[in-house]
Fold this sequence. Notes:
Elements (H helix, E strand, L loop, with lengths): L12 H17 L7 H17 L4 H7 L6 H9 L5 H16 L5 E10 L11 E4 L6 E13 L4 E9 L3 H10 L1
Antiparallel strand pairs: 1-3, 2-3, 3-4
Helix pairs in contact: 1-2, 1-5, 3-4
Amino acid sequence: MKADKMLIGEPLPFITEFVESINGALREYGENCQLSSTRRFRISFCIMAIIMTDTVCRATFERAGLGTYASAALSWMLRHSKIPWEFLLCSSVSHISKSFGIDRGTLAPDDSEKKRSENTERISEVRKMKDKKTDGFIMGQSTVFLILITPIVTIPVGFMFYMPDPKLTEWNRLKK
């Protein structure tokens, strides 16, 4: 079934339970860290949409949710709301670790380069990269994930966009 034909209604019970558990953990960090009921519902909606559509794309979420949230509303929530993202990630990883009984693992970096559209002025950390398929250049992002590798599951525990140091890049250019 295609993503644009799906209907996302109420989140599945395990998603609601997961978000409530994370919110409980956020309360331990401080009163300002907990999520409002609206934020909890929106995060539940996004998790449900990721599972249903097998992608992370606001426009696809909007179509799959039959207009429950506009792409712009999801964008605002992800970019401008005061959600404590760092604490949310830590709480999520902690919850998953406890749920699966994970008490050890190995941390490793995992990087990927993603081609972006021609119009990249509004996308953070975009740079010119070598395209391995065409042997040309593209505008793209390098995302580096810190992943926890365990015998049971591999989960991301952190991420950032990589941007080469401009001084080092200039030095390498002059050296050639």
